[in-house]
């Protein structure tokens, strides 16, 4: 089998393999695409369900949070009517001050726990007052609700006599005014009253006076420290009046106003109290804290009196509302208004939603019963679910492998492109090298050594020409006598040269004949040689497609003609060479 036949046989064999591989590759790609489409549809479905559920939950979240907060308050036995009024009040509060309505409802839990017997209006009033005061005094709602509970415990009789709702509004306004007048905070005022407890109230001191004294002391100390010092003073008043021979109580035994007590001490010791007088007061009251209270309050007795009167004139919570409104952020109001709208809208459909969700949750009980009643069936259902998930995972792994293969092909293509760039660069470099060699040759020929080499080359060319045209030259000069004699000498020399030349050419032709498809006759002179016929490639019986199809397409676009050219030396020279020329 000749080389072209071998080539086409190999191509046909390869084509028989590549065609099925191409089909398999297309099938695998189709399988991968189908799996990807199925996965995307499944993911889209799951995402759609999740998105719908999330959107519904997000839309109902304000109502859900409000329902949770109301549930906490309801657990304390609060009536539905009170919860409804509390909800409406929380919406009004949020819209007006830009605060959280759910936090408003949660704060009512502490109030309801601390104050028993609140009716529907009282619970809403206490909660509203606490949250407005928290906003006005820069305190958190939890601190102020605890403060309200503490104050109600201290002034319970006064609150019940006045009415809880009216009393808490007065307390709110009074506390806000004290915070503004004495540059303190709601949390510090709460700490002060927590420290003093009910001792001042038991002594018959009004709330406005207690607040004025504690507020004045907080100018130089914390709220808790002010409460401690005031408590020490109150504890020593009864004993001190006897020791100092002064009167600090009225005919019923109730303590006189703080201003009257301070004026009596001032009348005894003057504007200032020296060290000795301080020791005497310490001994009379029984503590240094009491003396410190007297020293601080005596600096401005008139101012203290004015503060007590001012706080006593407070009847409502207007001052607290004004302070809270001044610190309201309008952007927060906008955000809370949107929240309130969603909560109000969601509360209308929340019962239906809760019922539906509850039914779904109840299905968990049925599932548990099924697993316990049919353990084997449950097991096989579980196996089937695991199998399906395993198949899905296997498909994902297969897709991953196919993707990795495509990435590898891309990387190979990039590498081939890079190699092509390197080859182009080398070609450019070789072109430049050729130019450099030409320039070097020119330089060499300009050198004497180069000229010698060129002379030798010309001499060899001249000898070749002499050999080729020797017969004609000999025939021309043979008619002259003296030339014949010289011709004899040259004939002998020429015979030797010619023999060497023929042997050399025969050796070269023998070597050329070793090339497949080359057959040069060295013995018989002919005006023509046998043409080398084009070999018809063996047509593969493989299916269309693959490498054979590509070769066929190429042959339709490009044909090859093989012909022979014969060169006959002049004057009967028996040596000739056949050259094969291919035209494309």
UniProtKB/TrEMBL annotation:
Residue ranges annotated as transmembrane are 380-404, 410-433, 445-470, 482-501
The Phage tail tape measure protein domain sits at: 94-286
Q: Which domain of life is it from?
A: Bacteria
Which keywords annotate this record?
Membrane, Transmembrane, Transmembrane helix
Q: Which Pfam families match?
A: PhageMin_Tail
Q: What is this protein called?
A: Phage tail tape measure protein
* Species assigned in the record: Pseudoalteromonas sp. SD03
